[in-house]
Design goal:
Elements: H1 2-7, H2 14-21, H3 23-66, H4 74-96, H5 104-108, H6 111-142, H7 156-159, H8 161-180
Helix pairs in contact: 3-4, 4-8, 6-8
GO molecular function: transmembrane transporter activity
Keywords: Cell inner membrane, Cell membrane, Membrane, Transmembrane, Transmembrane helix, Transport
Main location: membrane
Amino acid sequence: MSEQSGDHGIRQDPDRSEDRSTSDGSGWRRSVTLFWSVYDRIVTILTILFLSVTVLTVLVAAIGRSMGTPVRSAPQLALLFLIWAIVLGADICLRKGEHIRVSVIADALPSVGRKILTALHLVLIVPFLLFLAWDGFDLATGNWQRQLGATGLSYGMITLALPVGALLFLVSISRRIARFGLDATLEPEDHHHESPL
């Protein structure tokens, strides 16, 4: 009888006990997770939007040209939106670890060697991105008075993609370091989708 009562006793829900033990940080973690989820979604939506506008602008320009009424500002607008789509798309790839990489040497190294190689990469990449962000803002403000062809927009909107992209890349690298540690910072999230060159 005592064996049966042990089976029918009060069972603790593992989710509830975990909630009590992590209640201090779970609200903060949820907020951070929600923030990054919204951030990622905004970047993805903007990338799709800018790429779609690029395609539509080229289509309108081609139709207008074939009808004998070319749209003078279409090439500049297509360039503007294409550059921003490329920068945002590159950030998405960096965030997911899906950028082009040659991993023959890294895959042959033990875990400690991969960490050292990743640290070396980051020592080269991070200062370069900081340089691009710093000088890129100077470039963008210097080009702000220059017009982007017939659009009437500022050419600085194109050059602003450089520092903004560099800052986005720095954020993505920081997130990957926080999430995966130094060993897998530059690794793809899913090796099954990786295709060799």
